[in-house]
Amino acid sequence: WHLRGCLLGLQVLAYNRHTYETVAQLLIITVVPSPGGEPAYQGEFLVGNRNVEELLPVAAQEIFLGATAGVWEQDDLHVINVTSALDRGGRVPLPIEGRKEGVYVKVGSRGSFSPCLASAASPQSRFRCSLGQQPLASCYDTFAPHFTIRWCNLTLLQVWPSPTSPGPVWGSGVLEEGGDFQPPTEVPPRDLLPGYLVTLLVPLAVATLLCLLLGHLMCCRREGV
């Protein structure tokens, strides 16, 4: 976000998946930029055994961050975004065996990725996933048994800080001595009469010809005339 002290109104519409009852609520959110900016290293995990509402509470996110720290080997992790897999093209699960929709959780850190995460997202690991094999993961999976991570969907992103362009330089508001104001060049007058006549007379002439033709067909082409 490049907003500073901005108020954002967000209307949330939710429904009960069992009774299909809906409820709406208006949330007023104050958008404040992060003091340290956007984290340089971001990883997105697909949790296959959770729905999005199960990872929205802060307590659930703390548990997930603790499991993520075991494979990332960083202690400054924080959740950036939580998205349902249905919003990424996932299919609605069958209502059997307690299947879940799946959740994409994006986590950020200022520390680099661990060798375990780097190997899981390497081209060799992607190739093994395309063959239906297990990806390369050299570390112990600290997410199990609470979270089932789809390691073939792991995405690692390194964000580089964007250069900030200098803002406009404001002057004193007083015209410098000798700098006379030069008004824009005057536009020469245009003759609009020909265009007006063409716009008016051409449709009138066409309408007259159509009326004459229609009158000729109706009055002069009748049987017996």
From TrEMBL:
GO CC annotation: sarcoglycan complex
Annotated InterPro entries: Sarcoglycan_alpha/epsilon (IPR008908), Sarcoglycan_C (IPR048347)
Domain annotation Sarcoglycan alpha/epsilon second: ranges: 41-156
Entry keyword set: Membrane, Transmembrane, Transmembrane helix
Residue ranges of the TM segments: 193-215
Descriptive protein name: SGCA protein
Source organism (scientific name): Cepphus grylle (Black guillemot)
